[in-house]
TrEMBL record, chains A, B:
One of its GO terms (biological process) is carboxylic acid metabolic process. One of its GO terms (molecular function) is carboxy-lyase activity. Belongs to the group II decarboxylase family. GO terms for cellular component: cytoplasm. The lineage of its organism: Eukaryota, Metazoa, Spiralia, Lophotrochozoa, Mollusca. It holds the Pfam family Pyridoxal_deC. It comes from the Eukaryota. Keywords: Decarboxylase, Lyase, Pyridoxal phosphate. This is Glutamate decarboxylase protein. It comes from Plakobranchus ocellatus. Its cofactor is pyridoxal 5'-phosphate.
Length: 491, 491
């Protein structure tokens, strides 16, 4: 075997069998309620179940297929209607087709010549997404994940304030400060570490009881920092926080930012999807006032990982190019025979950049604006249904009176703890419940939901169901409640 | 349409047809000499040929298939045996299977629970690759592209020298310096910009006539910088330079680095693949002396974009975790029921991280060590054949007497310029030839080779054939020579 020729009948047969396996085991069974959402094995068990050795020499086609089958068997199924764990997941035929197309064409987006179709697609998509968030002078860039998009926000904020950084670095800059709600994503901590600001430059701002940044506290932190001689550079507002799903008030934050000449970057990685829904886009109100915004389309919009876009509201039209260009003479020759403004590679920090746009384009083309809107609205509808169900069940306690974005957060109260005084001791007991149920859930493979504590609000371990799978129906919401009750009633 | 259910017969049929289209048009025809390597259209032509609008509402399956067909038609074919343009390319059924598997499973590698199989695979692969480059205490991380891997080298160099940077940033650091050969990749410029060092921190070191860093010049730059009060932080050695394919002398550079306590990072993004070949691994001699090394497996090893690994020679065993962790309590709960040392997500800067490991594992498992070695050796054999062919043809002039890595660099001399005095005027004329041939080549769609000047060596525009496709045979090398002669003889 080991033929590299796609015309070889044996190779073609292997591909055909691979396709059948993926369709049946990963896509069909992986989204079918009759099959488990996961089949957990501990690391050492897993190592003995897989045949990892790649050294031995050519494998047969049967061995390769067998191994892929096992990998599917022991991997969780993020497209399953009982998978409500992290923010990504969901599978559909259209974005899968786009993803496979991207892999089969294997083009790199640095110059127009070698990636004409996807560069044209990107320009089109950036315009579309900028329109949705209200960026009049919008430009965009796909980055490898939402965290990297947030890095870009900080990078652009720094460059626009201190363009000389590109040459002279941060060695002689004033000490800079960035502001984020205490419920904001940890990617800002990663960003300040990576980009050379250090963790001390992050100022966490308190949140209200729904997890939204307290804008009065933001302003007092800023004025206090200025008095101390620090320079405020950026506010990272959160649109759909990681745990509670909260949306900061962009209009109020923008007003503060304008007063103090601070870059406003919106982390809409999770919540950005609401921009496509007439019913829910009010949650992003004020997005047009931001300087930049990031949106993970592999989250609420359900694209396969990764599909993350950084958008910038840039009246100059060349901020990305100016901030990032290195003008390598071996890539961006000036004497090319076509319009080199389409050589978009120097607008980013990557050199090789795989195509993430085509899966997004395919899904949107398949569903249309109305279909994209319907899937967002349906996710909210499911979250609402689940919330009401939990509210009226004595075995559950909601963390917030209402859900935010489509995060539904709750404690399970086992029978022995119901109807008791909710004192510290009681809460300590409750904090031990979620990890125990989670362990049983994982062994059973029936359901996937994350739990976590939330120290800044004094919340002990609670479950957080993230609802976005378009396959979910009310009965899947019912299943969450029933299954947790089944797994935990004796605890 | 617009069903999200994979059991829906219409959806299953659409997937079947998508698969057939990808197999036939992208993979089979895309690697078949009977079909063109590209079908170039200028941006505005392309926009009118594609039906970009995604707003209008649900598309029919026929429309989606039609549009994918067109995207394939107007995209270049990097797996084609006449495609010798950039460093990536090549297609094989095994890594495509792995890539599609990765997309269909759509798991994210932050915690073991949601990505058990691929985390186990990664650990196995890091060990394998570290063994090949001689890292005794090796650890690794997949990063989104080789440029990002180089960022990691700089990031780790900074962290290991100044761990306090993670908290306090670079504001009060001494002015740092990084060294790279003047033939090194522009990603170091991108890195110092992004990570806050600034472009002035990059010191280009001269190269010899084969494009290798002059180690004596490196040392004198370092001592001169120290005298000026700068602090040398990192040398980025190049293993397979972008234009000429040169390999720096890692052993000699390492000696200098040890003397001055400087981090040695090897950019083996292009040349790393030689580590798998007994015949060619001498080019990486001294790799075990480096502190870190990056290797783009989507280049010489021919995996689909992206497959980039950062390797670190780390006796402490926890440098990646220490440099990058943010310990988000909503991801890395300490009270989990399994061995949380497998939660590898906090070892990197990404939060969502797609799986790049499985396509690598699949290809290597399919071919075995011997098959991987054979493909590397064959690429060198093809480069050797082409070089000899060009050497003996009066219409061509080699840029270097021998090829480096598998970069074959040459000028084409049209008839009217043969046998003349090679003065400045003659060279000026030669510099205009490659862009003209390139334009014709692109219109014809028969061949894809890049050209560029090389200012630091005074070379006017020349062609650079990058040879790595395992489908290439001597007749494809013959074709390069014949086709350029055909396209350029009258110029």
């Amino acid at each position: 075997m080991a033929s590299m020729n796609f015309e070889d009948p044996e190779v073609a047969k292997f591909l055909d069998q691979t396709y059948q396996l993926l369709k049946e085991d990963a896509l069909q069974k992986g989204t079918d309620r009759e099959y488990p959402v996961m089949n957990f094995k501990h690391p050492n068990e897993l190592k003995s179940l897989l045949d990892l050795d790649i050294t031995a020499g050519p494998a047969t086609y049967e061995q390769l297929l067998e191994e892929m089958k096992r990998m599917i068997q022991y991997s969780p199924k993020p497209g399953h209607p009982h998978y409500h764990d992290p923010f990504y997941g969901s599978l559909d035929a259209y974005s899968q087709a786009g993803s496979w197309l991207s892999s089969s064409l294997n083009v790199n987006l640095h110059t127009f010549e070698i990636s004409p179709v996807f560069i044209v697609l990107e320009k089109y998509i950036f315009k579309k997404l900028c329109d949705l968030v209200g960026f009049q002078h919008g430009d965009g860039m796909f980055c490898p994940g939402g965290t990297n998009c947030n890095f870009f926000g900080l990078h652009l904020a720094r460059f626009k304030k201190f363009p000389e950084v590109k040459k002279t670095g941060m060695f002689s800059l004033p000490t800079l400060r960035c502001y984020i709600s205490e419920d904001g994503h940890h990617s800002l901590l990663k960003a300040v570490n990576y980009l050379g600001f250090g963790g001390n430059s992050v100022v966490p701002v308190s949140t209200d009881d729904r997890g939204r940044m307290l804008v009065s506290d933001l302003e007092s932190s800023i004025t206090s920092d200025i008095e101390k001689g620090y320079m405020p550079l950026m506010v990272m507002a959160t649109c759909g926080s990681t745990v509670l799903g909260s949306f900061d008030d962009l209009t109020a934050i923008s007003k503060v930012c304008k007063t103090y000449n601070i870059w406003l970057h919106a982390d809409a990685n999770w919540g950005g999807g609401v921009a496509a829904s007439k019913q829910h886009r009010h949650l992003l109100k004020g997005s047009h006032l931001c300087d930049s915004l990031t949106w993970n389309l592999h989250q609420l919009n359900g694209l396969p990982e990764q599909c993350s876009v950084f958008l910038i509201n840039d009246p100059t039209g060349n901020a990305l190019e100016e901030a990032n260009s290195a003008r390598a003479e071996y890539l961006f020759q000036p004497d090319k025979h076509y319009d080199i403004s389409y050589d978009s590679g120097d607008k980013t920090v990557q050199c090789g950049r795989k195509s993430d746009v085509v899966k997004l384009w395919m899904q949107w083309r398949a569903l249309g604006d109305s279909g994209i809107e319907a899937r967002i609205d349906q996710a909210f509808e499911n979250a609402r249904y689940l919330t009401e169900k939990l509210r009226t069940n004595e075995g559950f306690k909601l963390v917030l009176p209402e859900f935010e974005c489509t995060n539904v957060c709750f404690w399970y109260i086992p029978h022995r703890l119901r109807g008791q005084l909710e004192d510290n001791k009681w809460w300590q007991e409750i904090g031990k419940i979620a990890p125990k149920i989670k362990e049983r859930m994982t062994r059973t493979g029936s359901l996937l939901i994350q739990y976590q504590p939330m120290s800044n609000k004094g919340f002990v371990n609670f479950f957080r169901a993230i609802i976005h799978n378009p396959l979910c129906r009310p009965r899947d919401m019912d299943f969450i409640v029933e299954e947790i009750e089944r797994l935990g009633h004796d605890l």
